[in-house]
Write a structure and sequence with these properties.
Layout: H1 13-17, H2 21-45, H3 47-61, H4 67-78, H5 84-104, E1 119-122, H6 124-133, E2 138-141, H7 148-155, E3 161-164, H8 171-183, E4 187-189, H9 195-204, E5 208-212, E6 216-225, E7 228-232, H10 235-243, E8 247-256, E9 259-264, H11 276-297, H12 311-317
Parallel strand pairs: 1-9, 2-5, 2-8, 3-4, 3-5
Antiparallel strand pairs: 6-7, 8-9
Length: 326
């Protein structure tokens, strides 16, 4: 079990080493605004009202941001059979999902996946089997609904699991978020720099790791995703093969304000034919197909604002210049 008292705040030093006096001053101002305008008020609202309020607000504000064009282009690429009105409706729903996640974030320590009625966990027996086998595993998921809930379901079973995260530039806000995760019982690290080294160390000690494997990775493999090549990180597959551990897919769906259904799917062992390159490719393709199937089943709760495909793919598919106002 990962003891919360043994968890440490891990941050890449290069982010802070590159900062100027002006950036450090800006970070302080941003942290003050974070506390006064966002974190404090959302905590006062409680989890349900905070989820509802920011879901409503970001649904209104999101279409004014540049990422809204990215969402619409991604949706046109992924669902060419849908109408423009359907694309716009999904883009708005995706903004609402992002807003709800932000509203729920200050309340994570109160959303206990194994107490109360806020989280339904399906397939928890797979977590118990992983922990009892004492071999470790690679948990994979995507940016579904409030993806922080997935990590809490794993770590609070408990499974001795190292969960990755991406460090924010602002160290004060980054520390605040890590404190919330610490209070929730989650060990965290950043995938930049020391991240891969820490993941390998964890697996070598028969601990588990959890990663999100659905975003663009420029140094990755071109894997078909919604019918178009998308650069995808092979790291989780490569690590599972290297250490001979199973891959455990996990999905999260929001069922209401600050309420979720998390499913631990059947683990699978990557094929090991001795051809490492081919085996890694086959495993990445299997993971990507799983993630695509979940997105297709529940598209309104995925993070469409991320540029998953390059502009060249958008241009080739003719989705760049369609009407973009929701």
């Amino acid at each position: 079990m990962t003891n919360a008292s043994n968890q440490q705040y891990v941050r890449p030093r290069d982010i802070d080493n590159r900062s100027t006096f002006g950036q450090r001053l800006q970070w302080r101002i941003e942290a003050l605004a974070w506390d006064l305008i966002y974190w404090g008020p959302m905590k006062m609202l409680g989890p349900d009202r905070a989820s509802n309020f920011l879901g409503w607000l970001i649904k209104k504000v999101g279409p004014l941001m540049s990422q809204h064009k990215t969402s619409l282009r991604n949706l046109r690429l992924a669902f060419p059979e849908k109408s423009e009105d359907e694309h716009k409706a999904l883009a708005l729903a995706a903004w609402e999902s992002v807003g709800r996640t932000a509203g729920e974030l200050p309340h994570l320590p109160r959303i206990n996946p194994y107490a109360g009625d806020r989280v339904e966990v399906i397939g928890a027996e797979h977590l118990d089997a992983i922990e009892n086998a004492d071999l470790g595993a690679v948990f994979i998921s995507g940016h579904f609904a409030n993806w922080e809930i997935m990590a809490a379901v794993i770590c609070n079973r408990p499974v001795d699991c190292l969960v990755t995260y991406r460090a924010l530039n602002n160290p004060h806000i980054d520390r605040r978020l890590n404190q919330v995760r610490h209070d929730y019982g989650i060990g965290v690290l950043t995938p930049k720099g020391l991240g891969t080294r820490e993941l390998m160390r964890a697996l070598s000690k028969k601990r588990s790791i959890a990663v999100l494997n659905d975003q663009k990775f420029n140094q990755g493999l071109p894997i078909e995703f919604f019918g178009h090549a998308a650069m995808t990180a092979p790291g989780p597959s490569r690590l599972a093969l290297k250490y001979g551990v199973p891959i455990v897919p996990v999905t999260t769906r929001r069922t209401g304000p600050a309420r979720f259904r998390v499913e631990i799917h059947e683990p699978f062992t990557p094929q090991n034919t001795g051809d490492t390159q081919a085996d890694v490719l086959a495993c990445v393709e299997k993971i990507t197909a799983f993630l695509e199937a979940e997105i297709r089943a529940n598209p309104a709760q995925w993070f469409w604002q991320h540029r998953r495909w390059p502009k060249e793919t958008w241009k080739a598919a003719g989705v760049m210049h369609a009407p973009e106002h929701a």
